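Try this one yourself first.
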């Protein structure tokens, strides 16, 4: 496919992104404006230097730490209701402009509470921004996934769940919480620590995903399957090393949320061609192509499709099937509402 054909094809498809983080998707321009208007995070910078605090640069960045450093600066501004609401609205707008018609946005409310907001207020601000955009664009559907940080431990995850259950989609008209996730440093915090939290999430009727097998090996994915009962796995990249695991994922219909640029930047893969995406697809594993953090990785979902087409030689039919499968992996109660051209 040449560049024009790719663009044409992607434009014709309703895209879905079901793995995208709030903090890694904020417009640099918005943070710059907030920095200029009322609180300068790093005095004396021009916009391009400021942008480097938020966005990966192949010439300057090369470690996992460089990647994680991009998440600090936004927190200076995401402690206030109005800012969170505005960012959620813009995030929906950016997704929509990229051809996305179904978005699941994940957020860890705890890290946005430094100015006194409660977990529920953080989620309410996010819902508000989304529902305002949704009213203007009825063909856009969005839901929220609540993240518990691994390093906060299993008990904190349960406390968080009890607080946020009132923000569930079904209790509100329109946008709400649809799922639960754990994220953060994998090695010291294995899935078993969150067994009780996931059974509580199940009891609460929340759908479940879990970051696993991103920086750690396939055993962490096996453990996630055993202890957490997830419908989907965030990344699951190291499953590529384990044929039995690939078979199991395919047999149980468990989705892998694949984020190519992010995996490259965090070091989960050394080059795109070595990502197991093609093997997952060939083995019948359900895959959703996602962005993870479009601002940090300086990408968009359509760019990620472009990367996948080039790296794995995807045909038009492959791309159509991948887009449809990505949408069908949704946790939204109404499912994938998109119509895909034959
Ligand atoms: Zn993620």
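Now uncover the answer:
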């Amino acid at each position: 496919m040449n560049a024009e054909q790719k663009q044409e094809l992607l434009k014709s498809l309703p895209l879905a992104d079901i793995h995208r983080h709030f903090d890694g998707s904020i417009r640099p321009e918005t943070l710059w404006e907030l920095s200029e208007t009322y609180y300068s995070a790093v005095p004396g910078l021009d916009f391009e230097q400021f942008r480097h605090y938020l966005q990966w640069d192949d010439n300057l960045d090369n470690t996992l730490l460089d990647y994680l450093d991009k998440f600090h600066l936004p927190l200076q501004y995401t402690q206030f209701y109005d800012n969170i609401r505005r960012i959620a609205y813009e995030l929906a707008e950016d997704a929509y402009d990229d051809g996305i018609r179904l978005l699941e946005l994940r957020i860890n409310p705890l890290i946005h509470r430094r100015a006194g907001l409660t977990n529920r207020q953080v989620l309410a601000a996010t819902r508000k921004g989304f529902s305002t955009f949704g009213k203007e664009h009825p063909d856009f559907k969005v839901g929220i996934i609540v993240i518990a940080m691994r390093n906060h431990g299993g008990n904190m995850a349960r406390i968080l769940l009890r607080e946020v259950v009132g923000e569930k989609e079904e209790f509100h008209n329109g946008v709400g919480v649809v799922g639960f996730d754990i994220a953060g440093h994998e090695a010291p915090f294995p899935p078993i620590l969150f067994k009780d939290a996931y059974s509580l999430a199940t009891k609460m009727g929340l759908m479940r995903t879990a970051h696993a097998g991103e920086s750690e090996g396939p055993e962490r994915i096996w453990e996630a399957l055993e202890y957490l009962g997830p419908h989907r796995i965030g990344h699951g990249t190291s499953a590529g090393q384990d044929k039995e695991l690939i078979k199991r994922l395919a047999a149980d219909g468990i989705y892998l949320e694949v984020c190519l640029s992010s995996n490259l930047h965090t070091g989960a893969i050394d080059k795109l061609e070595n990502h197991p995406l093609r093997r997952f697809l060939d083995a019948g594993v359900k895959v959703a192509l996602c962005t993870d953090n479009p601002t940090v990785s300086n990408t968009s979902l359509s760019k990620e499709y472009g990367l996948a087409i080039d790296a794995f030689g995807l045909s038009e039919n492959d791309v159509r099937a991948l887009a449809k499968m990505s949408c069908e992996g949704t946790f939204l109660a109404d499912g994938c509402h998109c119509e895909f051209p034959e």
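Discussion: DSSP finds 14 helices and eight strands in the chain. The chain has a mean pLDDT of 96.
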